[in-house]
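Subject: sequence -> structure tokens, single chain

Hey, anyone have a minute? Need the predicted structure for the following. Not urgent.
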Amino acid sequence: MKKAVIMIFCLAFLISMVNSGDFKYVGVKKCKMCHKGERKGNVYETWMSKAHAKAFESIKKKGEEKNPKCLECHTTAFNQGGYKLDDPKASNFEGVQCESCHGPGSVYKKTTIMKNKEMALKSGLVDISEKTCTGCHDGTKCEHAKGFDYQKALKAIEHTYTKK
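Reply:
Had a minute. Here:
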């Protein structure tokens, strides 16, 4: 009986969180905890080897690290709960991190939710589409966004998690 009451309380709490719509950005360090290493498909390592991980560095080299137009695409969730100029925690959101494409992970990062795609989608996970990418890669925002080919780009950033 006690277990049932605890389960009902936990379920009610989880449902209230899922329905709250109050999803927050947590940063790649949280994602890395479950998506790093060979057993996890080297998802984190693959991301680290790609241009998205180095997106902030690329604008910093050009002296554009305070340019809001650049920060919109070269950081995670610029002024939307992620990267914010002059915030001591800003470095947690430098680069195009997991949540830039997959949505704020505060709720769906929990293993119990991640194992259920439908629940994860209700908990802030974004189902990736061409629109996800063209938010930045629309050909008008900066030079390297010109000539964007969605299918080619998907192959270039492939980082699918497969259970092993």
